[in-house]
Amino acid sequence: MSKGRLIIFSAPSGCGKGTMLEQILKDSRFRTSVSATTRAPRDIDVDGVTYHFMSREDFTAKLENGEFLESAEYCQNLYGTLLSEVDPYIENGINVILEIEVQGAMSVMEKRPDALSIFVLPPSMKELRRRLEKRGTEAQEVIEERLSKAAWEISHAEKYDYVIVNGPLEEAVSDFFAVVRGEELKASSMSETINEVLQNA
Ligand code: 5GP
Fold first, then answer.
1. Whole-number Å distance between alpha carbons of 71 and 37
2. Which of 20, 38, 71, 94 could be joined to 4 by an S-S link, Cβ 3.0–4.6 Å?
3. Is 173 touching ligand 1 by the criterion CB < 6 Å?
4. Mind listing the pLDDT tens digit for each residue in 11-29?
5. pLDDT in tens, 74-115
6. What angle do CA 142, 145, 146 make, to 5 degrees?
7. Contact present, 121 and 166 (Cβ < 8 Å)
8. Cα(160) to centroid(ligand 1), Å
9. Class of domain 34-85 as given by CATH
10. CATH code at 6-33+95-199
11. 93 vs 87: CA distance, rounded Å
12. Is residue 58's pLDDT more than 80?
């Protein structure tokens, strides 16, 4: 069985990546890694499902224990990808999506150069503000902080392999599958198939 692919999937907060992922995850070949975080749960959060919520002390202990593939501080909270959420699944042929911010993404790109990296853009900054305000989960001050963080993140989008604009949902989701399929068909990923064709004489 061939291994799964590691997919870095970054989008500024409020970009609608959650809605995109809901569609993508209907395909059982994909799973998202459940990150660890020190941020407070929101109403829609479920511990162990949306995040592994933990104290700063527990997070730091795991970090020192080498349990993270990457970690980063984002808006005063720690976030990190546990290795146990990634490698066992990749070994079993599952494509693992890391929903992570830019600093973590850069660190994974270095550590795992064969990871596929995708950045999701909002259609405009104006639309991003509208979506964040509509969500109503954060205070105005936090929204302003997330917007300026978003502008900084977007300025790094060109470091990723692919950029997808999350305008109409169906288009963005179909762009995601197109990108993954393109990767699967790269000559460098096709050696097994090439050998099979040659052997079937
Ligand atoms: P939120 O608090 O809105 O759920 O997430 C804030 C930011 O943290 C988002 O950009 C999200 O992608 C990022 N994030 C979530 N989990 C991780 C993680 O494990 N590592 C890193 N580096 N970023 C993460």
1. 9
2. 94
3. no
4. 998 888 889 999 999 999 9
5. 889 999 999 999 999 999 999 999 999 899 999 999 999 999
6. 85
7. yes
8. 17
9. alpha beta
10. 3.40.50.300
11. 10
12. yes
Please work out whether the CB of residue 100 comes within 6 Å of at least one atom of ligand 1.
yes
Q: Is the CB of 51 under 6 A from ligand 1?
A: no
pLDDT category at 173 given cuts 50, 70, 90 is very high
- The structure tokens listed for 37 are 């975080």
**Which residue pairs, CB below 8 angstroms and at least 24 apart, start in 189-198?**
192/2
Question: Mean of the per-residue pLDDT values for the chain?
Answer: 94
Domain borders along the chain are 6-33+95-199, 34-85
Atom of ligand 1 nearest to the CA of 99: 12
The fraction of the chain above a pLDDT of 70, given in percent, is 100
Query: Is 80 exceeded by the pLDDT of residue 1?
Result: no
Asked if residues 139 and 132 have their Cβ atoms less than 8 Å apart, the reply is no
Q: Residue 21 in contact with residue 33, Cβ under 8 Å?
A: no
Q: How far apart are CA 51 and CA 38, in angstroms?
A: 10
- Can you point out the beta strands (E) in the chain? 6-10, 30-32, 36-37, 52-53, 68-74, 77-82, 95-99, 116-121, 162-165
Which of 95, 96, 94 lies closest to 82 in space, CA to CA? Answer: 96
- Both tokens of residue 2? 């061939």
